[in-house]
Amino acid sequence: MAEETLLYEGKAKKVFATSDPGVVRVLYKDDATAFNGEKRGTIVGKGAINNQMSNLLFRYLEEHGVPTHFVEEVSERETLVRKVEIIPLEVVVRNLAAGSFSKRFGIEEGTVLERPLVEFYYKNDALGDPLVTDDHALILHLATEKDLAELRRLALAVNDLLIQRFREAGLILVDFKLEFGRLPSGELVLADEISPDTCRLWDERTREKLDKDRFRRDLGGVEEAYQEVWARLKGGVAR
Length: 239
Ligand code: TMP
Fold this sequence. Notes:
This protein is an alpha+beta fold. It has helices spanning 46-63, 99-105, 134-139, 145-167, 213-216, 222-235; strands at residues 6-9, 13-17, 23-28, 31-34, 39-42, 70-73, 78-82, 85-86, 89-96, 112-122, 131-132, 171-182, 188-191, 199-203. Thymidine-5'-phosphate binds at residues 92, 98-101, 129, 175-177, 198-200.
């Protein structure tokens, strides 16, 4: 029996089939890439941290009414999740200016936005994941009008919950990226991961960067930053 049917391999994860057609097993790797795969490296221990951190946050979000793909953590690096059809949009939420937003609009990193900003990017490596408007998404059939409204609603609900959870760990949630998937029932659920790979997290006191920007920008202390975030989250109060 082929027990290990690899369904998909991405830059940071592998996805395997299981005996249940509605469930897949995700394996988190230590591989890191940036700038659409141009920069490559390894962040030792990242797979285990991102897996466990995502699961902690997905459980927290579920408890607060956000549907997710999470089923069960099976090891430090592996999790069973519901099989979904991924919506080809990366949903970014920003609370403070940083990264591509700062660059595109010439706004200093750290500037507080007057309200959370939701952006959609077309998940397409060959095109470099371009920013898309609602009309682009509709005309390209990436999502329906109803989907876009639901994605925005869920992303903002996740933002409120995560801001609070990270604040309890002494961290500022600057921005983050979510992915959503559709269940066979048609329901949209939060998928992928929530980790220092997909969030910008700054120390509340020193504003030190504790996320993948340390890797992207060659700031050093990458492993230590991931460990620090995970230690604080684990140690913190659950709500
Ligand atoms: P950006 O400022 O580069 O657009 O990134 C916004 C947020 O999205 C940041 O928290 C990092 C995250 N992100 C990903 O998770 N994957 C990506 O491929 C990119 C470009 C950003």
